Records
---
Amino acid sequence: MNIYDISKQSGVSIATVSRVINNSGYVAEKTRKKVMDVIEANSYMPNVFAKGMSTSSMKTIGILTTNIRDLYQAQCVYYLEQELKKYGYTAMLCCTGDELAAKKEHVELLASRKVDALIFIGSHFVEKNAKDNAYLYGASNNVPVFLLNGLLRHDNIYSILCDDETGAYELTRICLEKGAKDPVFIASRDTFSMRRKFQGFLKACRQYGIEKDDSAFRVFSEDPESLDASYTLLFDESAYDALICADDEIAAVAQRAARNHGIRVPEDLMVTGYNDSVIATIASPAITSLDNRAQYMCTQAVYGLTQVLDGKEFPEETMYSGKVVERESTKRT
Amino acid sequence: MNIYDISKQSGVSIATVSRVINNSGYVAEKTRKKVMDVIEANSYMPNVFAKGMSTSSMKTIGILTTNIRDLYQAQCVYYLEQELKKYGYTAMLCCTGDELAAKKEHVELLASRKVDALIFIGSHFVEKNAKDNAYLYGASNNVPVFLLNGLLRHDNIYSILCDDETGAYELTRICLEKGAKDPVFIASRDTFSMRRKFQGFLKACRQYGIEKDDSAFRVFSEDPESLDASYTLLFDESAYDALICADDEIAAVAQRAARNHGIRVPEDLMVTGYNDSVIATIASPAITSLDNRAQYMCTQAVYGLTQVLDGKEFPEETMYSGKVVERESTKRT
DNA sequence: CTGAAAGCGCTTACAG
DNA sequence: CTGAAAGCGCTTACAG
């Protein structure tokens, strides 16, 4: 069943059938109804490939994530897909991992699939070495690029991100206000976004007259074996009384490591996470975290995308504030 | 840049260019090289739409998940995407939610996008009411359907699943062997797959001479507010000494509820999860769980899919065994 | 308001 | 081993 069949059965030309399908141009109400009836009777669906061939679009958006198993990234994919379908778009998903080469390959793959736009989830795509971001600029030459939780200034690249510096600042401030004197910052990777959080951490420390430098930025791998050793070293090194963690998972693991070392949370040690995921809720004690409003971010991205694809304006940069969610891990009375 | 440009620049017909691109038919080595050089010099990529139009395929697979935010489902998506790209396929992702109507819509959406096959993640797609599975049968008329953790007998539907009955049986047996006398089974939904786990639970109980009936099957909603009340009721009702939970998340929450009621895990109450996710590892005490080998399942599914799309044989049903991972939540000495 | 016709960029029998 | 040509199923100026 194709447009010719519909044309024959309804006694009009294929041009007219096309017009009623796409609601384009003028079609007499009578004609439209006649055609619609035939279409419905046959539950006809236009062939996407043919349509794509003439319009150069299949209404498909490429979503790139370094790791969909990460709760935060999965959440973003969820919200993005949710929004995209409202506008008739379909999501093509790529999990790239952290290797630059793989990221490039996936961008090319999606380009070859002729997606209408690209959405990158997470700061993991913005490389520390500025030159390594060329692949993003390259991508933006073909299609609009949306960067979630990342910031890059370039034509056709749109960045939408939570103000993580302020977020981390507030989490740190809460601990300091409750009496912590010696906080430390823990991340699993050294990225642009982590550095921004660390800036917030430093700012709060400065404000409370606590001297901290780059040595307070710790990168602990996610490998479970080396992790134990890392924490042993950390706790031996100094009696830290607050762990500002770059995400909830790190916080949960850190909290457990502390307990294994006989350190009580929050009595001896306060712990904060980031992203406000289920892990923060489920952990015990439940972990104070920062809700960075992933849903808002994703909704904005998809809205922006429809605007840009419509040839309308959209700000190149959107930064919005997150929200602290206090829980037991920082409750000290 | 299209196939005509390549044809002109290399001085051969478009038919020959097409043959070298697709490695089809006979092409003289000399000709092939000449054409390849031109293709690479221009970094030419065939237009997918045109290709799709003539071959009726874009090498795209539809993946359906009810909820990508669920750790287990996210994990499956990860492994599936990983495998699919090895074979040159791209993943189109749909998050359907639990409503039957939405599931149907998404199946149609993917059909309209002309995907080559459909992969359904999780038993959430196999409805309890047999009639409601018609949409799956319908889908299988157009493309091969792969059902992960679900079982449905129908032409062009391939089921791949872990033996959850035995899995739940073994988890229950561990608790009983360690002295539990009064276990109860907790799920968040009443699905086909949950029922299979429950059968395993009952089997273990019978074997240990413990009488249990349908009243031992509890469905607790995921809504945090009603949840607290549910657990209060549960713990008031009887001094259960083992909670066999249908997944790790439920187990983690149950464990916390127990602690809030002054019940110690594992001393007073043993707890088991399912899926062996990070949550089981991170929880404290760490939770005994069942590794249902999601990666194996996904690898099999993608392999099966390539076989079927190649016109080869693949078993309609594959059931494999899971693996118990014992942790602190059942450690009683 | 409607239709004839060109064009989108491939693949694939078929002929040679 | 290679090429001419039909065909895939749409959209969209253009003419009327």
---
Amino acid sequence: MSSLKDVAKKAGVSIATVSRVINNAPNINHETRHRVQLAMKSLDYRPSRIAKRLRSKAVSGNLIGVMVPDISNPFYVDVLSGIEDFMLSHDYLIIMCNFSQDEQKEQLYLDALVGESVDGLIVAPAHERDEKIIALEKDNIPFVCIDRGLIDANTDLVLVDNDKGAYEAVCFLLESGYKDIAYVSGLPQIPTSRQREQGYRRALNEYNIAFRKDLVKYGDSRMKSGKLLTLELLTQKIKPDALFTGNNLITLGALETIAEMGLEIPADIAIIGFDDMPWSSTLNPPLTAVRQPAYEIGRRAAELLYQRICEPGRPNVKIVLETELMIRKSTRPGKTKTK
Amino acid sequence: MSSLKDVAKKAGVSIATVSRVINNAPNINHETRHRVQLAMKSLDYRPSRIAKRLRSKAVSGNLIGVMVPDISNPFYVDVLSGIEDFMLSHDYLIIMCNFSQDEQKEQLYLDALVGESVDGLIVAPAHERDEKIIALEKDNIPFVCIDRGLIDANTDLVLVDNDKGAYEAVCFLLESGYKDIAYVSGLPQIPTSRQREQGYRRALNEYNIAFRKDLVKYGDSRMKSGKLLTLELLTQKIKPDALFTGNNLITLGALETIAEMGLEIPADIAIIGFDDMPWSSTLNPPLTAVRQPAYEIGRRAAELLYQRICEPGRPNVKIVLETELMIRKSTRPGKTKTK
DNA sequence: TTGAAAGCGCTAACAT
DNA sequence: ATGTTAGCGCTTTCAA
């Protein structure tokens, strides 16, 4: 790899001049610039981003970190796409960290990211009291939270109205005549799990249906958990007639149990999932789901981070995006209030 | 952020000594080491990975780049997981680059990656004559290819026997009595697309079924393309009675068209997809698919890269993993040779 | 066992 | 309009 020095020598100028043409500073002789550019071409010069970052951290090092809890979750994949699209167009690279909802792994990654002198972070905190994330403020490294807010810190934040999304889904179920609606939750320490439960309860309440403990099951937020929890639900004495599943992976797991038990949707059991997926309509039957604008979340978060990097002092902003209930066929039609 | 200098001052030693305890060099006074460690703790010291990388590129900079053509494809997500799991345990960070099968984007990323002085790359080349990748050899940066080999270069390579996987799938279709089997392909310049077509043709040949041009459709490798191509296929004069789809996204698209046309699987049309997905069994009906060990591919590739970083001179190795036909319900049973 | 100092590739004063 | 130079935080001789 050739360096500034090599280019300078070849072009017969000082390294400062080369640096100037690279960052196209004003006041450069036209002919000089040309000569330098030629030298760069012929040497196949590519600037060292790390040297640049090491030298001047004020200015863009063009690298950010993204911490997601689960890369196998299509939701986060879409978020990542949104982040990547925005960042690429600003010459930023992304270090992807998949911390698997494991706080030790999270800390490992955080330290490494700091060591890389990233310009900023986009993070889905493990939970709302995640001091490891809060600590970033002390280190003065810009970050924006996605999906999950921090309780003791005022930060940039992009998420969705989980309570409302859940509320609408459960109301829809209730209006369709379902009464024994179960909620298959993810990890209760994750804010979204609880906000969605809140919406669920709010809907029940509104329709004067008593909340029943045995109809809510907590697990981790993965497919296997959804599968197991659903099995529990469908084999206990009081069986639900409808399932509200806490995220897309849980939904998939639930679907598997339902299929294995030979149950029909919606004849035997109805289901609405939180998170829509590109293939939701190809499921059996097409799945009714609460759609989060995942790509948009990512894109907005990236925008916010970029702004903050450029202008560290600006006030924090919280962006709440809307969910959308995608009504398909996993629920029996009809507004019959009688079950 | 505190630096070596800060720690050195606090511990009352030179920065060289601090560096030594960090890299636990031999010959350090026990008491000194302790003092330094204390200082590091109290200052919350985290080493600058970029300074390290800048200084000594021979030794591990602990950063690699991964270039995938499509992060929305669950196959690559699994590959990424495999890479990440291995690399994390070796203190490596991953810069994720999603080049979207766009060669300009690919070049952009490649340059940036070189600028980051990554220790190595894991790449799925855009096609088998991708000179941008081959050029990495000149720059002396280690890389291993996944999923797609390079034709003019001898490299480390991890992939699957695509020909065989396709062959088995199509044979299975043939044995089940299907005769007009279509192949919904991805981009023909991608080696896997062609290898899978090869397997398809080989099977046809074996069963004395003439290859028919109008039963093979090429598109890009995304869901929409699968959807469109399938629509073409199912509305043309000679309709196929079975579909062999070139990758998971294409499969999903095909499924969508089939559903929209109100066709039943396998009664009206059979389908086998290349690539299995975690939710294949929850599809309607459970999808028969050619499973690639994606996670394993990633893991092996990471291993290979790590080895090569440690021992640049070792001979190239090519790892060919086996596919597995996951027989489920998207195909009509029976060995009837009569259609 | 420890320290001093050079230098990795770059930017940003400061000179000229 | 261009050159000189001092670092950024680290590793690594070379000395002591």
